């Protein structure tokens, strides 16, 4: 199942929840955290549970996730208690501080799954791993084999909360390029996810009116090795989907590489269109074809 576009939908907005199935996002994330005011949390939980039930009945192929409130607070257990009977595909974990914190969540989640009639260990996790300075410094711990977690679908990161946490007044330079700190965090998320064998999901493009800028950064994200990208506005979804979809030319070249090696079993390198192609090219071609299947 593709995981190119991850679209946030406020959990307390009946109007936006009703429109969500039409957006074309690969993953819909009903948000109980930042998009919901404290006074509206309980209402958001109820609406989200009803919406998840509706989606399960009418759009069973749509991946629906829930962003709960932070694990270091008091709201997340109530979030799980309310939404898990509706069987969300996964839980996004905001302000995640490391694998040990996720283990606390997983222990609770295992118990809630049993009470909710959900098959054990089937609810996936996607932590936001960079929203505090401490989390950003320790995010590489997710790549340690000792911290392997079958529930973990991938890692993603957030520039907005991190900039607030450190008092940064800018995140990108005058040319629209991430400044050094944010570029470093992004690279660590990408490398750590690949080291752990899970998906790397890039952060959102905050200026939803800047469609040209989104096309550029989304395509760069795809070319850098990310599997998908967060979205905060419906107009961003088709742009992200297009950017993370391999072109016909890319697929044709990848298939040609695979075919060339299949025609010459046992060799380490082959010639193709005047170029020498070796095993890393073959590995990359196979991954691209698998991604498109």
Description:
- The protein is 45% helix and 15% strand.
- With 293 residues, it is of the alpha/beta class.
- Helix 10 crosses helix 11.
- The protein is built from eleven helices and ten strands.
- It is globular, with a radius of gyration of 20 Å.
Please write out the topology.
Layout (H helix, E strand, L loop, with lengths): L4 E6 L3 H6 L7 E5 L9 H18 L4 E5 L8 H8 L6 E4 L5 H18 L7 E4 L5 H6 L15 E3 L2 H8 L13 H17 L2 E4 L8 H14 L3 E4 L4 H8 L4 H15 L6 E4 L2 E4 H14 L1
Parallel strand pairs: 1-2, 1-8, 2-3, 3-4, 4-5, 6-7, 7-8
Antiparallel strand pairs: 9-10
Helix pairs in contact: 2-3, 8-9, 10-11
Instruction: State the end-to-end distance.
Output: 9 Å
The low-pLDDT segments are none
> pLDDT average, as an integer?
93
Order of helices and strands: EHEHEHEHEHEHHEHEHHEEH
The radius of gyration over CA amounts to: 20 Å
Physical arrangement of strands within the biggest beta sheet = 5-4-3-2-1-8-7-6
> Would you count the extended β strands for me?
10
Gross morphology is: globular
Tell me which oligomeric state these chains represent: single chain
Number of helices: 11
Domain HpcH/HpaI aldolase/citrate lyase: 4-234
Family: Belongs to the HpcH/HpaI aldolase family.
GO molecular function: lyase activity
Cofactor: Mg(2+)
């Amino acid at each position: 199942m593709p995981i190119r576009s991850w679209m946030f939908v406020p959990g307390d907005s009946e109007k936006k929840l009703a429109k969500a199935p039409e957006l074309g996002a690969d993953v819909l994330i009903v948000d109980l955290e930042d998009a919901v005011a404290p006074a509206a949390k309980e209402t958001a939980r109820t609406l989200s549970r009803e919406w998840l039930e509706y989606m399960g009945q009418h759009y069973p192929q749509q991946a629906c996730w829930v962003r709960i409130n932070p694990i270091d607070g008091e709201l997340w257990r109530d979030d799980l208690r309310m939404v898990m009977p509706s069987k969300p595909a996964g839980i996004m974990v905001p302000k995640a501080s490391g694998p040990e914190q996720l283990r606390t969540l997983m222990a609770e989640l295992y118990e809630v799954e049993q009470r909710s009639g959900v098959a054990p260990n089937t609810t996936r996790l996607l932590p936001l791993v960079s929203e505090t300075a401490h989390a950003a410094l320790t995010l590489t711990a997710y790549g340690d084999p000792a911290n392997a977690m079958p529930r973990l679908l991938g890692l993603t990161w957030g520039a907005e909360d991190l900039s607030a946490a450190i008092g940064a007044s800018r995140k990108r330079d005058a040319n629209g390029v991430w400044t050094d700190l944010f570029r470093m965090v992004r690279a660590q998320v990408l490398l750590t996810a690949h080291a752990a064998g899970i998906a790397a999901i890039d952060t959102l493009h905050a200026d939803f009116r800047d469609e040209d800028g989104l096309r550029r950064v989304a395509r760069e994200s795809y070319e850098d090795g990310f599997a998908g990208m967060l979205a905060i506005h419906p107009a961003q979804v088709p742009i992200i989907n297009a950017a993370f979809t391999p072109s016909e030319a890319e697929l044709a070249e990848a298939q040609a590489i695979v075919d060339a090696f299949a025609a010459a079993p046992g060799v380490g390198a082959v010639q193709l269109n005047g170029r020498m192609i070796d095993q890393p090219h073959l590995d990359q071609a196979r991954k691209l074809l698998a991604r498109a299947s």
